[in-house]
Amino acid sequence: MEQRNISIVLIGMMGTGKSTAGRWIAEQLGYEFVDLDHEIEVAAGKRIPDLFAEDGEPAFRDLESAVLAKVLSCSKRVIATGGGAVLSESNCELMKRQGWVAALTAGAESIVERVREDQGRPLLAGGDLELKVRTILEERKDCYRFADVTVDTTGISAEEAGRQILMHY
Ligand code: S3P
After folding, report:
1. What are the binding residues for Mg(2+)?
2. Atom of ligand 1 nearest to the CA of 13
3. pTM higher than 0.90, yes or no?
4. Is the pLDDT of residue 10 over 90?
5. Which residues are annotated as a binding site for substrate?
6. Which domains does the chain carry?
7. Is residue 17 in contact with ligand 1, taking CB distance under 6 Å?
8. What's the average model confidence in pLDDT over 126-149?
9. Helix (H) or strand (E) holding 68
């Protein structure tokens, strides 16, 4: 496979398997894997639910943009972004300019099954999980369209999604 060096940026809704696919791709290419949510937690010195609860979502988004710019400054990385990193147009422009962008999608039912046991996502906490997932999917349906490639992960493993992404890289 031809090695392009440009960092791969994975975007997509929560529960589409960005982190698992990203780790697998990084291993195949010998690239460094970067989980944006983890880097945000390191920078903030607290977990994401605490960051949302104590400082609010706007503070989280500001930090997300700052950390994204920092991690995109190096090539040969696979960066798994948080599902909302695409809400900022300047983040999207930066991803396009500095990286090769792959979007992961999935149907609402698959997403609900994948995120059900995870307590770490404040936007999905409490209330009707399926309604929340469907609402956010609808709100963001156009936000992931700028990607260089899109892979539907419904019914396939994250590794298979990674394999499909690499076929286009
Ligand atoms: C968010 C997605 C999360 C995390 C935060 C907000 C979102 O990341 O960044 O809870 O707005 O979609 P994952 O997509 O990795 O779950």
Report:
1. 19
2. 14
3. yes
4. yes
5. 37, 61, 83, 140
6. 7-168 (3.40.50.300)
7. no
8. 97
9. helix 57-71
Quick check: 115 and 72 in contact, CB under 8 A?
A: no
Ligand 1 centre to CA of 2 (Å) is 32
- What are the φ/ψ torsions at residue 12 (nearest 5 degrees)? 150, 160
Average pLDDT over residues 98-108: 97
Judge if ipTM > 0.85: yes
The whole-angstrom separation of Cα 17 and Cα 22 is 8
Q: Whose CA is nearest to atom 11 of ligand 1?
A: 84
Judged against a pLDDT cut of 60, whether residue 2 lies above it is answered with no
Structure tokens at 81: 């972004």
Two tokens, residue 136: 């956010």
Closest CA to 19 of 158, 167, 166: 158
CA distances from 8 to 16, 29, 46, 57, 89 (A): 16, 11, 26, 26, 18
